[in-house]
Amino acid sequence: MKTYFLTVYSNKGEALLDEQIEAANDQEAKEIGFQKLKENNYEDTTHRLVSPDARLVLFHR
After folding, report:
1. C-alpha distances out from residue 18 to 7, 8, 14, Å
2. What is the pLDDT of residue 36?
3. Is the distance from CB of 33 to CB of 18 less than 8 angstroms?
4. Are 5 and 21 in contact (CB under 8 A)?
5. pLDDT tens, position by position, for the chain (61 residues)?
6. Measured between alpha carbons, how far is 17 from 30 in angstroms, rounded to an integer?
7. Contacts of 47 (CB under 8 A, 6+ apart)
8. pLDDT recorded at residue 53
9. Buried (b) or exposed (e) across 9-45, using 16+ Cβ within 10 A?
10. pLDDT of residue 6
11. What is the Cα–Cα distance from 15 to 54, expressed in whole angstroms?
């Protein structure tokens, strides 16, 4: 399993959510990330999901 990092930001740049996600691959991490965003009503809020090797897997502005 790999550790991915999901962060959601306010309009002022403050972190609203900062979580680690354990997933086997990028696709699984995206699915878990989308689920967490939906649970917290952050689908339309600025967010990013970063892989262990610092690649952006998911980004919304």
Report:
1. 4, 7, 10
2. 97
3. no
4. yes
5. 999 999 999 999 999 999 999 999 999 999 999 999 999 999 999 999 999 999 999 999 9
6. 16
7. 6, 7, 8, 9, 17, 37, 58, 59, 60
8. 97
9. beeeeeeeeeeebebeeeeebbebbeebbeeeebeeb
10. 98
11. 18
Structure tokens at 38: 């939906």
Quick one: tokens of 34? 């989308």
DSSP line for 8-50:
EE-TTS-EEEEEEEEESSHHHHHHHHHHHHHHTT-TTS-EEEE
Q: Which residues contact 29 (CB under 8 A, 6 or more apart)?
A: 2, 4, 21, 23, 49, 51, 57
The reply to whether the predicted model has a pTM over 0.90 is yes
